[in-house]
Write a structure and sequence with these properties.
The radius of gyration is 16 Å and the shape is globular. It is 12% helix and 36% strand. The strands form two sheets. Strands 1-3-6-5 form a four-stranded mixed β-sheet, with no helix packed on it. A four-stranded mixed β-sheet has the order 2-8-7-4, with no helix packed on it. The chain has one helix and eight strands; from the N terminus they run αββββββββ.
């Protein structure tokens, strides 16, 4: 009975985290907006963030997701380092276990309802964090 529950929990975890052996898609060309309020010249509409792998180098990124879509945040910080934080509840910041030993930590950014979430990413070299802003429609 316990084995059956474990299998069910593993299947649910795979379904919710999107882990299914697929590969991350590269960012679409021309959709990266950097800098404060970066809209990429699209008339104020942030570029899509679906499928992107964001890092601390994406400081100032402003993107959009639809409810149910995801992006990823990957940081080369050591285990036990400062964690990113989310201000707002439109996007969940879900920690992903590192099973490959890549030396990176990773989070899924899952859009759960309309609104805006600002993610702050600590930087060891400066007291000012990197920030990402995700708008969910």
């Amino acid at each position: 009975m316990a084995d059956r529950r474990l299998v069910c929990l593993a299947a649910l975890a795979l379904a919710f985290t999107g882990c299914g052996g697929g590969e991350a898609r590269p960012p679409q060309k021309g959709t990266h907006a950097s800098g404060a309020g970066g809209s990429g010249g699209t008339g104020g509409t942030p570029p899509p963030a679906q499928g992107r792998v964001l890092t601390g180098a994406d400081d100032g990124f402003a993107g959009r997701l639809s409810v149910g879509q995801t992006a990823r945040l990957r940081l080369p910080l050591p285990e036990g380092g400062q964690e990113p934080t989310a201000e707002g509840d439109a996007v969940l910041l879900i920690r992903i276990s590192n099973v490959t030993g890549t030396g990176h930590r990773e989070w899924e950014l899952r859009a759960v309802h309309p609104g805006t979430t600002r993610i702050s990413i600590p930087r060891p070299s400066t007291p000012t964090p990197s920030t990402l802003t995700l708008t969910v429609t």
